[in-house]
Write a structure and sequence with these properties.
171 residues; mainly beta; 4-stranded antiparallel sheet; 3% helix; globular
């Protein structure tokens, strides 16, 4: 269980209330999710920083990337558990500057110009850009419901798409 979030004294406790992991120095633990096979957890520290840790020791196994390579203006990743060896991550490309005539808050409210989707393979530590079916609305958002089921929605989080995430991994 997570206690003390979103503060710097946040920590993850086991069922006996023993501290399994404390927030890093000067940071917090915002949330964590347990993998389906219960062998690792995905810990979110905020600001697109995640760690994958063993459920036995709560020591880091891996650290997925914070931002996609080659897209300097992209937002940081939001990572979600896809299966026992993969995460799916979303980063957005911000709207192009429309120029004069808009206030700063109006510019900030513009939707992203596109969504980037990546797969992170935990066992190899590799990140691969995923294809997005052209029938899906762009930009889009990946989110997770309370049961851990992934949802694909439009950029305003109002319309769910009837889409599936289909893993296809080259041997």
């Amino acid at each position: 269980m997570l206690v003390g979030s979103p503060y710097k004294h946040a920590r993850i406790l086991d069922q006996n209330r023993k501290i399994m992991r404390s927030a890093p120095e000067g940071r917090t633990i915002v949330s964590f999710r347990i993998s389906k096979n219960k062998k690792w957890v995905l810990i979110y520290f905020g600001d697109a920083e995640y760690a994958i840790a063993s459920t036995e020791s709560f020591e880091d196994i891996a650290r997925p990337p914070i931002q996609p390579d080659g897209f300097e203006d992209a937002t940081g990743f939001s990572w979600f558990i896809l299966d026992d060896d993969h995460l799916i991550g979303q980063a957005d490309l911000p709207s192009l500057d429309p120029g004069v005539g808009m206030t700063l808050s109006e510019k900030d409210s513009l939707p992203p110009r596109d969504t980037l989707i990546y797969i992170y393979t935990i066992s190899s530590g590799t990140t691969t850009r995923a294809e997005i079916d052209g029938a899906l609305p762009r930009p889009l958002n990946i989110s997770e419901n309370s049961e851990g089921r992934l949802l694909i929605m439009d950029s305003s989080y109002t319309v769910r798409s009837g889409a599936k995430i289909i893993p296809f991994f080259e041997p």
